[in-house]
Design goal:
The chain is an alpha+beta fold and 344 residues long. The chain folds into 2 domains: 2-31, no CATH class; 32-344, 2,3-Dihydroxybiphenyl 1,2-Dioxygenase, domain 1 (Roll), CATH 3.10.180.10. The chain has helices at 2-10, 15-31, 48-58, 72-78, 131-140, 188-194, 213-220, 237-243, and strands at residues 37-45, 62-70, 84-92, 95-104, 122-128, 144-145, 151-152, 164-169, 175-180, 200-210, 227-235, 249-256, 263-271, 290-295, 309-317, 327-332, 338-343. A hairpin with a 6-residue loop joins strand 12 and strand 13. It is globular, with a radius of gyration of 22 Å. The protein starts with a helix and ends with a strand.
């Protein structure tokens, strides 16, 4: 009896039920395997031929595929009824950029007064081996400035000291960044590729403006399985002129996927706090629509315990994988940025 009494005190009533629920929860959270990598970053363009010319002539991307498609599958994925789209995938190094033109129905242009602290802001960061040469090349091709000019981040921003960066725009006002790392920063692959003599090397990350880093981590880290690789607080004249936002002070978080590839960067503006929210009526055919595409092994498993805002009608199966995947889902993150999960 004494031994039984000790046993009962160690395991209070209901312990078996509690343990069972905990085990079920553990397996439920593990059932959706983390996304493996960013398979593409993409956005909507107004004129595909002009976009191809810009990205393969001004920038040295190479066209990998060019597909025109329509029908219920693309309607359900994009959330645009009657959509007929032309989708072009481009590569720079190992990374993929996906451009989409809506032949029907064309959406709205990017607001001319968009600023880098508005919550719909997103860009890709293209690594260059020489910032001066890259800037001269972009000026020769008459790209539009988003920054006032290339900036070298100062020594007091320890995590980013010595990084050189410049924002510019394509003809649709999508913001792009060229970036070069000093010898003590950046992934080793960029320093190895710089020895090749090429000027434009590949895409390091896509950056998104977030309202609250902790809230965004609940989605990107806790649901998708990304991990935080580094953090920095950036401020000062150089950062202001890079973002072209007076008084800019940012908390920046770099996230990476399980496998190497494009990273995701959070830009949380600590100041100024007047960035505008993501338009609630945004559609996939609007030109400010960007999407970060993640490769997954089971699209449906991610949202069993998390209820996102869907752009697509839940998940969509494709009978013919013309776009390179057989199963996909398009949702919004906590701030409205589009995230696409795909199974090959």
């Amino acid at each position: 009896m004494k031994q039984q009494s000790i046993h009962q005190n160690a395991f209070p009533p209901g312990w078996f039920l509690i343990a069972t629920i905990a085990i079920i929860a553990l397996f439920a959270s593990a059932s959706g395997q983390p996304v493996s990598h960013v398979e593409s970053v993409g956005f909507t363009v107004s004129d595909m031929d002009r976009a191809i010319d810009f990205y393969t002539s001004v920038l040295p991307f190479e066209k990998q595929s060019d597909v025109e498609t329509w029908g219920s599958e693309i309607e359900h994925l994009s959330g645009v009824f009657g959509a007929r789209v032309r989708v072009v995938r481009l590569k720079l190094g190992d990374e993929t950029l996906e451009l989409t033109e809506y032949l029907t129905h064309q959406g709205r242009p990017i607001p001319v007064d968009s600023r880098s602290n508005d919550l719909w802001f997103q860009h890709i960061a293209i690594i260059v081996s020489d910032m001066d040469k890259a800037y001269a090349h972009l000026r020769l091709n008459k790209v539009r400035h988003a920054s006032t000019g290339p900036q070298t981040l100062p020594s007091y921003i320890t995590e980013a000291a010595g990084i050189k960066a410049f924002y510019f725009r394509d003809f649709d006002n999508h913001v792009l960044e060229v970036l070069s790392f000093p010898s003590d920063k950046g992934a080793p692959k960029w320093h190895d590729l710089a020895k090749s003599g090429k000027l434009f090397l590949g895409i390091d990350h896509t950056a998104i403006v977030v309202r609250d880093t902790d809230e965004s981590l609940k989605f990107y880290r806790d649901v998708l399985g990304l991990s935080v690789a580094g953090e920095s607080t950036n401020y000062g004249s150089e950062q202001e002129h890079l973002n072209n936002v007076f008084g800019a002070k940012l908390h920046i978080s770099g996230l990476r996927t399980k496998n190497a590839g494009v990273n995701v960067e959070f830009l949380e503006y600590l100041a100024p706090s007047n960035g505008r929210p993501f338009p609630v009526d945004t559609k996939s055919n609007d030109l400010w629509h960007w999407q970060t595409g993640f490769a997954a092994t089971n699209v449906d498993s991610f949202f069993k315990s998390y209820n996102p805002e869907y752009i697509s009608t839940a998940s969509v199966l494709f009978e013919r994988p013309l776009l390179g995947f057989s199963h996909a889902s398009l949702v919004r993150d906590p701030d409205g940025h589009a995230v696409r999960l795909v199974e090959k």
